[in-house]
Amino acid sequence: MHETRGRYFAVSPSRRIIMDLMHEARQVPSIPVQRRIDVREIEEIRRRTDPKISWFVIFMKAFAIVAEKNPQLRRSLIKYPWYRFYDHPFSICSLAVERDLEGEPSLFFAHFRAPEEQSLTELQDALGVYKKAPIQEVGLYRRALKIGRMPTLVRRLLWWMTLNFSGEKRAKRLGTFGITSYGALGAESLHPISPLTCTFNFGPISSDGKVLIKIIYDHRTLDGSEVARRLRDIEDALHTTIRQELVALTDPADGQAVRPGAEQRAIILRQDSPHPHRGPSVEDTVAKQARTTLDR
User: Fold this and answer.
1) What is the mean pLDDT of residues 8-21?
2) What is the mean pLDDT of residues 157-182?
3) Range of the domain at 195
4) How far apart, in whole angstroms, are the C-alpha atoms of residue 193 and residue 22?
5) Distance CA 49, CA 254 (A)
6) Considering 4, 6, 77, 219, which has the largest number of Cβ atoms within 10 A of its Cβ?
7) CA distance readout (Å), 198 to 5, 66, 104, 178, 243
């Protein structure tokens, strides 16, 4: 009697990128620090906003607001040609987005430049583009697939050079901090790993409005006491700046007040632009789906 046999199939380019990411992340001595906070009031307000704002966007902006005053959260360790630290002038958030690629669930990384200077609605619009725009029309996704098709030796060399030689290129290509969560699925990641200095994580929100927020940090670059203080600052930002902006979004007329002022030049920002300059650099098909956003 013949047994049914399994099958072999090729590793997709997007999965190869995740393999490379885990290979580099294993070399980082990371430690999680967590804090339980009450977001019941924030959640009640969020339910009434128009448009509805994702918790990813809310926590992303809160983290970036705190990082604006604390460069340690924008810091990276550069090893070559000698050990030194690099502080990027603004935050770049790297957010994992699950997309379907040729019938396979695939992870891509979306970048949000200077979230502290963008409104919640602008960040939400950009997130919508990253989730819905055709994969081949998003620059970051195209580059990831291109790199994923390269031989392993070439990919690992690119990762090594990006992480260890130039702080500026490292920030632009990988981001200054990451954010991840399985909270919407009712699950929590205990210790996600990443090659970045900081990764922000949050769990599911309980029925009493409590949520566990966490920063997994590179202990070569930061200390736990510093991270614990910044978690407290993030909680404060949620209940002040973020709350105020959410309240404004419950009334469309008031919501206009939180958008950039007329004195600032309104332009279309390509969130994954490789250069921190102003200008209409987004592909036309993506620009049609995104509202105007603002770069530094």
Assistant:
1) 92
2) 96
3) 13-287
4) 7
5) 11
6) 77
7) 44, 13, 29, 7, 24
Residue 198 has which token pair? Answer: 């900081």
Q: What is the CATH number of the domain that holds 267?
A: 3.30.559.10
Residue 155's CB is within 10 A of a number of other CB atoms, namely 19
Eight-state DSSP code of residue 238: I
pTM more than 0.90: no
> Tokens 């949050």 belong to which residue?
202
Please check whether residue 1 lies inside any domain of the structure: no
Q: Which helix (H) or strand (E) holds 217?
A: strand 210-218
Predicted pLDDT of residue 253? 56
Distance of alpha carbon 141 from alpha carbon 134, whole angstroms: 10
Over residues 98-124, the pLDDT tens digits come to 999 988 999 999 999 999 999 999 999
Alpha-carbon span 63 to 52, nearest angstrom = 19
**Look-up of token digits 């502080």:** 87
